Structure formats: C-alpha cells, structure tokens
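Q: Could you write out the predicted structure for this multi-component system? I'm mainly interested in how the pieces pack against one another.
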Amino acid sequence: MPSINIGLIGYGGIGRVHAAAYRAIPFHYGLSADSIKVGGVATTRPETAVQAASEIGCEFYTTDYRDLLARDDIDAVDICTPNNSHYDIVLAAAAAGRHIYCEKPLAMNAGEAQAMAQAVDAAGVKGQLTFNFRFFPAIARARQLIADGFLGQVFSFRGRYHRSSYISRDKALSWRLQRELTGGGALFDLGSHILDLLYYLLGDFDSVYGTLDTLIKERPVAPGAAEMGQVDVDDIALLHARTRDGGLGTIEISRMGTGATNDVCVEIFGESGALRFDLAEPAWLYVYDARDAETPIGGQRGFRRIETAGRYDGQRAPDWTMSPDFMRVHAECQYQFIKSIWEDRTPSPSFADGLHVQKIMEAAERSAETERWVKLAEI
Amino acid sequence: MPSINIGLIGYGGIGRVHAAAYRAIPFHYGLSADSIKVGGVATTRPETAVQAASEIGCEFYTTDYRDLLARDDIDAVDICTPNNSHYDIVLAAAAAGRHIYCEKPLAMNAGEAQAMAQAVDAAGVKGQLTFNFRFFPAIARARQLIADGFLGQVFSFRGRYHRSSYISRDKALSWRLQRELTGGGALFDLGSHILDLLYYLLGDFDSVYGTLDTLIKERPVAPGAAEMGQVDVDDIALLHARTRDGGLGTIEISRMGTGATNDVCVEIFGESGALRFDLAEPAWLYVYDARDAETPIGGQRGFRRIETAGRYDGQRAPDWTMSPDFMRVHAECQYQFIKSIWEDRTPSPSFADGLHVQKIMEAAERSAETERWVKLAEI
Amino acid sequence: MPSINIGLIGYGGIGRVHAAAYRAIPFHYGLSADSIKVGGVATTRPETAVQAASEIGCEFYTTDYRDLLARDDIDAVDICTPNNSHYDIVLAAAAAGRHIYCEKPLAMNAGEAQAMAQAVDAAGVKGQLTFNFRFFPAIARARQLIADGFLGQVFSFRGRYHRSSYISRDKALSWRLQRELTGGGALFDLGSHILDLLYYLLGDFDSVYGTLDTLIKERPVAPGAAEMGQVDVDDIALLHARTRDGGLGTIEISRMGTGATNDVCVEIFGESGALRFDLAEPAWLYVYDARDAETPIGGQRGFRRIETAGRYDGQRAPDWTMSPDFMRVHAECQYQFIKSIWEDRTPSPSFADGLHVQKIMEAAERSAETERWVKLAEI
Amino acid sequence: MPSINIGLIGYGGIGRVHAAAYRAIPFHYGLSADSIKVGGVATTRPETAVQAASEIGCEFYTTDYRDLLARDDIDAVDICTPNNSHYDIVLAAAAAGRHIYCEKPLAMNAGEAQAMAQAVDAAGVKGQLTFNFRFFPAIARARQLIADGFLGQVFSFRGRYHRSSYISRDKALSWRLQRELTGGGALFDLGSHILDLLYYLLGDFDSVYGTLDTLIKERPVAPGAAEMGQVDVDDIALLHARTRDGGLGTIEISRMGTGATNDVCVEIFGESGALRFDLAEPAWLYVYDARDAETPIGGQRGFRRIETAGRYDGQRAPDWTMSPDFMRVHAECQYQFIKSIWEDRTPSPSFADGLHVQKIMEAAERSAETERWVKLAEI
C-alpha cells in the first residue's frame, strides 16, 4: 500500500487526539510506521503550529491551511477546526484533489453540507466524517445483530447524550454558545453524535419533532466579566423521531444534564429483541432476546451484557480485552478512512452520512420553530 | 382512634393486594388488629365474592357494590374495579357519605374526574387515589430534598414507565386494549403512575406535547382466535412537558418496551443537584450534589446511592432495611388514607391530584391529535 | 386442610414480621383467612405481650412460653427469641408434640443443634428454620438451574454478607456482642444466612478454614457509658471452604463492612456456566452460559439478568412482578412450614439443615483457633 | 530534557502495547516527538524482529537482547519477555548501566527479585515495574484520599482478579501453565496486579494465608493433542492477608472465573469511609463517607460514583473525559519511568515494590503448602 501523508488542520484538544491516533494504527494492525504519517500541520496561531509540529514530529507547519493544500506530498487533510470553517476548507481541499477527513458536525447547515458532499463526489476524493462513536465495538456488534435480523421489526428507540458542561450560570459565552461560529448548540455539538449512532443502527430518518430551549439565556461575555451576552443556541434539545422503517423514538440532548460527564445511551426495542448501549460501560452491549425460553417457574429471558472489547476486525491482538477508549475509537475511524483510500471504496461514515445527520438537525430546528413534525424530505 | 371498616369493591389481583395490605398496617405501626378491617367485599361474579370473603375473613359479600354502601357499618370503600366503573361508584359512595380510596387512573376522562373531585368535596368525605409509587421511601426522600431546595432551579427532567407486556402480536384484545373500558391505553395505565410521580416531585404541569401511537394495530379478539379486532388505544406515548416552574422534560410510556418488566425511572436535573430513581433498585435514591468539592486532580462530585429502605415516618421497626415491595407501598398509601380519616385532614394523593394527572393525560391525547402543545388550562 | 394455630414466642422486630407474614399467606395462595392463625403470643415482658396480642388480634398472651405449650389449641410454635433460649424452648415444644418454626441460627453450638434435631425427629413433629433468604425467587431459580445441570462441575464459589452496623466505636455492647447470649458474632448472626444459601445451592460442605477477628475489641457497656466492656465475639469472619463435590470457595462475613446495609451476594463459577445473586437487586438472577455461541467479531456470551420476581410456585397472582421484600420471603418460608404439616412431609429448611450450618460455623471457629482446615466430620 | 532512547526486548501483544504507548506520550504531555523514542528492538525470532522494527519505525533490530545493550545510543530497556528471562536480562542491563522498565511479575521467586532490586540499586540505574493498573486515575484518586486520611483506620479490604481464560478442559498447556517458564500460575500472572494495587493503597503486607488449587490438573500438551500433560501451577488462589497497619483482607485470584473477562475489583472498608474500584467502570471510583449527615427519615450517606477520567496530573487536555483504556495506563506508567530518569528520582512502582509483591506471592505459596499463616519477614 502507498504511504498516506496527512495534513492536519487545527490542533486543539481534538487535533492532538487525531494525531496520536494516526500514530497508534500501525501497532493495532501490523502496518509499517511510515504507512501513515502526519506530514504537516496548520493552525491559525503560529505558536500552536510550532508546538504541534514538535509533538507530531513533522517538519512542515503553517498558519494557513492553503499552504498544506499547495504541497504535493499531502494526500489527505484532516479538519479539526471550528464548524464555521469546514465549508471553505472542504471545498478548497476537494478542489485540490485531497481526500478529506472532517470533524463533526459536517457543516453549519444542510445547504452547506449538501454542497460539501457534492464537492467530494465531483472531485472524486474520499470524504469521511469523525463519527467516532460508531467505532466502539459494541456499536459495531449492535449493527451486525440488527443486520442479522436479531430485533425483528423495530418498535421504538431512545437515544441520549447528556453533558453537564454548562450548568453554571458563571460559565462565559464561548464559541460553542455562538451560532455564527457553530451553526447550532447542544443539538449540533452533542446531537450530531447520538443522531449518527441512531441513523447508523436504524437507517434513514423520516421525520422529527423538536423541542429546543435555552435554559440559561444570558452569560458573561468572558470569564468573570460583568457584561452579559445573549446565548443564541439551544442548550437542550428534545426530539421525537420516526425512521423510514416505521420505528418511533425519543432523543434527549442536553448540556444541562446535571451530574453527567459523557452520558451517551442508545436503546432499541424490537419485536424479537432489544439492545442497549451505555458509554459508561464502553466494552459491553446489552442484548435481550425475546426468543429465549420461558419456563413455568422462571424463564431465562433477560438482558445479557455481552463483552465486545478488543474485537476489531483484523486487529493483531484480538485479546486486548480491556475497554477501548476515546483514542482507540478515533484510531479506528481514521483507519477506516485510510482503508477507503487504499481500497478505493466509499468511506463510511461518509459525507452523505454527515449530510443526513445535518438534515435531521435542521428538521429538528425547523420543527421547534413551527411546532409541527418536519419531514427530512422537506430539508 | 375509631376502628375503620372498609368495603372492598373488586377483587382481582389488585384487590387482593389491597386486602393484604390493610392487614399488614397494624404490624408496621403498632395498631390493634381491629383498628382497620375489611368488613365486606363486592365483586361482579358470585364465586369470586365467596372466595374473597374467605381470604379476607369477612362475613359480608355481595355482587352489587350498592349493597355495601347500604350497610351502616362500612366507613369507607376501596375501589379496585376497571376504570369505566369508577365514576358511578365514586358518585354513589360520596352520596352515601362514605370515604373513598380509588385505584388509578381516577376516571375515563378529565370531565368525569372533575365531577368526582367535586363530589367528594361536596359530600365532605375523603377521596384518595392509589398512587402507590409515591410511597417508595426513595420518592419520599426525593420530595423532601426538593422541598429543602437541594436542586435549586429545576432545569429539566425525565420520566419513564416501560413494560413489555404487549410485544407479542398473538396477545389478544383484553379490556386494557379497549377504550370504552379503560379510557386510554399505555398513557392511562402506566402513564398515570409516572405522571403522578413527576407531578408529586415537580408540582403542577403547565403544558404538554404528545406523540401517541399504536404499534400493533390489530390483535386476535380472544386468545388463539383467528378473528382480529382493532386496538383503539395507544401502546406507546412519548411526551414533552413543561411544569409551571419552568422545567422542561421528556416522558416515555410504553407497553412495547421489549425486555422491560417494570421499568420505572425518574431523573431530575437542577441547578445545584440532580436526583434519579429506578424501580429496579427500589430502596435507593441516586443523588448528585453540584456543591460537592472539586479538586485539581479529581473531585468528589458524583451520584451517590443513598439508602432509603425502611424509613417510613413513625414505623415501629425503622431498622427493616430490606427493599420495600409492592405490598409495602400499597400498605403505606392505604395507611395515609386511614390517617386522613382519623386526623380529618386532606388526603394525599387526593382526587384533586388524580384530576391533575387526568388533565395531563387528556392534554397529551389532544396534543397528539392536533400536533401542537396543549396547556392544561385548556382542559 | 385443618386450620393451623400458631403460638408465637418472642415479639421483637422479627416476631412482628412473622406475625404479619402469616396473615399475608391466604392472599398469596387463595387460602381462607382462618386456615392459618396466630392464636397466642408469649413474650418475657408483660407490656410487650399485651401490645403483641393487640396487633395480632389474638386473645391469649403470656410471659411464659410454657403456657402456650400447655394450650391444646396450639398446633405449632414459632420461636423468635434470642439464640440462647432456642434449645430449651425447642426441647419443651417437641416434648409437648408441637411443630416448631425457629429463627436462625438454630442453636448456640453444634452439640445443642444435634440434640434439637434429634428431639423433633423423636417427637415426630416438624422442625423448620427461618432461612428465609432461600425464598427469594432468584435463589429458587438458581437451585433449579443447578439441579438441571446448568453449571456442570462447580469450580468455585463466593458468598458474602456485609453489614456496617458496628463500625462506630461508640456503639455499645448489645446482646449481639455477647457470646453467652448469642453463641457467636457476625459468623452466627450474618454467617448463618449466607452459609445456608451456599449449602442450599451447592450441597454439603466438607471442610473450612476460618480467619475470625474482633476489629473493635472494647465498647461502652451501655449507650453513652464511660465504662468499657470486652467484645467476646467476632465482628468479621473470612472463610475458605470446600464442598463435598469439590468446589472451592471464599466467604466474607462482616459487621464492619463500611457502607453496606444488607450486602448479600452469592457467585458460583462452573464448568459450563455461572450464577450471581445480589440482594440489592432481589428480583434478578445473573446467569452466564458458557455454551452460548461465540462468533469471530463478537459472541453472545455474557451475564444475563433474568427476572424472577413474583414467580412463586402456586401463587395466585404470578404477575406480581415487583421485587419481593423481606416480608414476602418470610411469608414463603412460613408457608412451606405450614405445607409440611398439611402434607406431612419433611420441612425444608429443616433442623437437619440448621445443624449442618451450625457445624460449618463451629468448624470455622475451631479452624480460627487452631489455624488449620477443619472437616465437618470432626464436629 | 535529553531525549530518551528505549530498547524494547520482546514484541508479543504486550510489547506492541508498550511501543504504541511510548509514541502517545508526547501528545498527552506536550513533549516533542523525539523526546522519547524506541530506537531498537530485540525478539527471539528474526521475522518478529523485522515486523517489530517496521511497526515501530526503528532501524535497529536483533534476535539477541545483548546487541541492544551493546549499543551506546540505548538509554533504557523495556522488558516484555516471559518471566523466566527477566532475571538474566535485568542483571545484564544493570551491568551495562541501562535504566530498566520490566513487565510484571518481576521474577520467578523472591530470591531472584531480591538480587534484581539490589542490582539496579548497585548500578545506580532506574528500575521500574509495569504495574500499569496503578495508573487508572481512579486508583490514583483512591491513594490520594487514603493519604488524606479519608478512611480513618482501615478495618478490612478485598481484592479480586478473575479471568475465565482457562475454564475449558480443551485448552492446551501453554507457557502460562508451566512453572519453569512462569514461576507460578494465576497467583503470579493475575495476582501480581491485584496484590500490587492493594499494596499500593494499603502499604506493606505483614502476613498471608493462602489456599491454592489447580482445578483442572491435566490438559492436552498442545491444541488438539490427545496426549495429556500435568499442570503444575495454580489456577485459583484464595488469600487472607494482614497489612502492617492491621487491616484484614481477602483476595480472590482465578483463571477459572467463569463469565469474567477482566474482573478486577478492590474494596476498602475503613472507620470513616469506604472505597471501591471496579475495572468494568475504569473511569469511576466509588466513595462512601461515613461522616455524611444522617437525618431522621433518611440520610445522605451512600456510595458516590466519582468521575476520575482524564485527570492525569499535568496532562495537556484534562478535559478528555472518556474512560482511559489499557493503552493509556501503560502510557502513564511508562511516562512516570521516563520522568524518573529525567528528574533523577526513585521510580514508582520500583523494583523494591516488585520485590514486596513477589514476597507476598511466595508467602502465599508457602502458606498453601504448610497450611499456616506466613509472615513476609520469613521470606
């Protein structure tokens, strides 16, 4: 396989995770160290760029991502910048013929996302999204079980992503609380993850009803500031949703989930079984089989906690039976991107997937404004 | 205290539980055995009436509840019959000057409930509802904490009542699936419990948005029958709700919750704390205090599982530290009713509480039909 | 069936539980109210006797249990007095031809227990012990699974009973801390329960190794007293044990288990499966089946939480799907005693079972003294 | 800081983990990529050596670890070979003046361990052990709480490490089942981890009582072979132990824990609090504070699940709030080793720590043979 040289754009917390994850892949899959490398990095602040290049061990760094795109040796870019910059970078990268790995959510709105998905298709480059939560092995296992018909008809489902990061009124207006920088609030930031998980497991959404609210409407403009500014994005988003296959579900997204750190949960209730995933126990999938025997005094039906850790397809050490962490699932998502290049196949999760999630979010927002169910087909 | 003589109306599964619970109260509170007795029983089928009188150890039984009301020695009636009979019995009992203890939901609709609440008030008799879930000590503890200001402003909440009792398509049309007998489906049967818990903890509801569905629309008219009949009640009800105090919540009610037996859960997220109750662990309340210290390397914040078992006010053996069961919480609900008679005070949960819950359910149904938020004030 | 008239001896907390439990049985099993009654009560203090008779609703009460034995109408006695009185009462009751239901542990030592077991046999009366924990339906289900060969050969096991009732140094010397009144400490009080559960599930014990300790050796002679007295019983007992079938296990018994209320846990590890019971979730049994399929990416093996609530053989309302509580399992234990009289069969748990448990405890004590494994055959 | 160049010896599953972990450290702590590198690798099989060098991206590889020691540019060696080779490599590396990072257990027996600890001291090189479990942040938090006096006097404790890797009789004799290659069985392999955790949290052990057994005594000499060979190491080890500070504990170690994957658990019960860690929830520590307020109807005492994820001292992204995995804790352990070199301080966990654990294991083995408590001072 040809070596893949990545240009990393953005080096905040998540950029560092991506960089580390690229470096871990060879150890998981027995690749040579030079088969994947981060060959350059772009950040808006020069001192961050220098630091990033030092940590990564690459020679090239810049404060302008276009310099990266101009380099012949860069095969793909990895975009770890705020949401409002994705569109321009993706279009420029596609135009430059670079494969693209992009942090979620894909875009500021469905219109942008549509154009971005078209751009990568038109350019014939791979476009993959960082829907890293898909790569917890329990989720892969859930998808496999669903594909095998384990659930029968899906009756209903539930998804949740709660954090408590904004419960303090003293917490200042950050970029995540400003619509012009993010496109949306908790719905975009946390919702994109949980909506993608449900979409990945259950297929296309048909329509949604959304109740969005901003529980704390004013915050200090900066940490400790007396001046207050308006929060113009949601901090809680409650959805009802229907999939094309007829499942009815409820989704809770909140930055105001007092007590939560990363409370991510998926439940699916089907005719012949049920599944449950909880990120607090990332190595396990809860599985209920309605076909299990029932006996007079007591049956054997019940949720089973099946162990899924370390079970990545093709991994050299399938006996790594400890819980995967954040870094591991990022590595897996990135590895799938690299493989889509090597094997010249459609990446997954693709920009088209990112577009679908973007439509769900936009439908939820429109629903919240108009107080009626909104079909994705309308978006 | 004068002895209270109960006339029990209805003796299905729940009637037996009530009868047993009355008999347990003296042991919990050091009362004399004859302070509370079930002195007569009415059921529609004569053979059930005989059996009931034998189990209870009372001499009087009848197939017409009016015979019970006609007896001078009956102080109060306990109504354990299907929903569609509550209205007539309550009105007759109030007219006869009997105190009334009634199974939930109070009525077939808010109009009936309103009339029933007025009837007991007009007659000057006590009217209490079997919202027995309130009497898990963890719920009492939660209410006490909320009253003490533990949560600060309530941001949001979640309630759930899932059973899986109807997931099989072969399950026949029973009385619970027929609107004319029940007034409603899962929303009425399961929803009344969870809505009352939320109302009890959070105060009056302001408005609701409801999505109701019947996931299995046709069922055999009888077990094993080839003939199919229409199900005309919901088997799943998803609600968004706002309380008068401004909390925003989500509520899931389903008979189609594959894998659930009695999956009842309440979560409340507030400015300074959070609470969680799960009926699978009936003796514990999960409590999170945002005021707990946070230190550089790691704080002490986290959900605490506090033990609440056996902690009934005034109970003779407060060291009964095992989980309370179904019977114990019924006994406690019934004891509060008896005490409301003895102490001549407003019972709790009262018919007014039952009316509020009835309004929430009716608002949810109207919302599901009209696809808009419905205020309780409209009902 | 002839009516059974019980004479209750002792009316502390546990006596009240027994009395209430007798009264609940007819409602569970469709018996007539007069089929089982508590017809008299004996307590050492006259004022307790009066109160007991009032709560129970019986006419006869006494401060001398021999008065109960002298009454012709008493069929059986139920002994709820401290351990050091069991021997005399049992021998007197057996001599009087009364069936006997006795609180655990059976005796002060194995010698007494042996004589008591012989006495009931010789008198041809039923002798049953209050090993009520056996009657959590999850335990019944576990025993059934083991009998069905679910586990294959048992490799190892673990049992635990932790309470934290004595962690405060200020807690005074009570009767439970004095060997002459109890025969033993945590090992007797808590250990008898967990040892019986293991014996019930795994069969006869072969030998044990015990480490016993008294972590707090001196306590106030009375609450608040300055004078200190010696604690002469264990407050922690750690055992290794082998069953006759070759299983090797570990057992933890402690009154010093900081944070525990009633932490009871059983785990069994076998060749083809495993079982786990935790009293914190009294309605569930955790079951692992090693024969479940294993697939390349991920298998389906895992602990399954099977629902066991309400599943008592012959119960009229098998749909009582809530967790059973303390009272319910006492009622079941007592019902089995009554049935052993009606059906004239060996009661279970029998005095012989109580004797086996007594031998395990005595072997553990002897082992702790001699620092070697002790066989039950030596006791 | 001078760059540290590691020579990696052994490249099985764990060698790959170490190599990947070194590469991740710069991203966690903001170091330059070249501050730590694996500059050479030695494995016994040449094809593994080539593959290892490719994955690591180093130029030097060999089948003889002495070639690594002979290179001037190697500052430290990391030993990932079977237990029976540790002694020779450590002595040679110390003689060559190289710092040493060694997989657990340190040695085949306490005598070897003693010599190895002396060798590094004499040579003035750092010697650290891979007791990576110490570096779950929950364990660090537990140690900090204990140091702060949170528990008061420790009454008792429990540790457990269960795997189910050997429950099948068909599983062949591997190197882990042969004493001459490992020095011991489950006690050495799994026990060293859990014993180190207890020692790390509770301080020096005073004495132990051990019951060791080999539940499956014969196994095929190779996968599928008809010929059977004797297993000469334990597959289950049950210990009672006393610390120098007077705590009494119980420890379960088993490869025959049907249903377990990596079931690691620590519980500590103290006068004023309790702690619990369970590897199934690696990001949380359970904490009980006996000083929490108790109120009449219900207290606030209870186990609190405190979040510890991502809280490594000095980590650049303390907001990485996901559970740490196996790789992360290895990285942390290795980072501490590197820091001990840079800062010229005693490494922790040191070879002296490894020696203490080795003594506990040897005392347990001697106790099992002689059937008496053995003091560590005797070893």
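A: Regarding packing and overall arrangement: The first strand of chain A starts at residue 4 and ends at 9.
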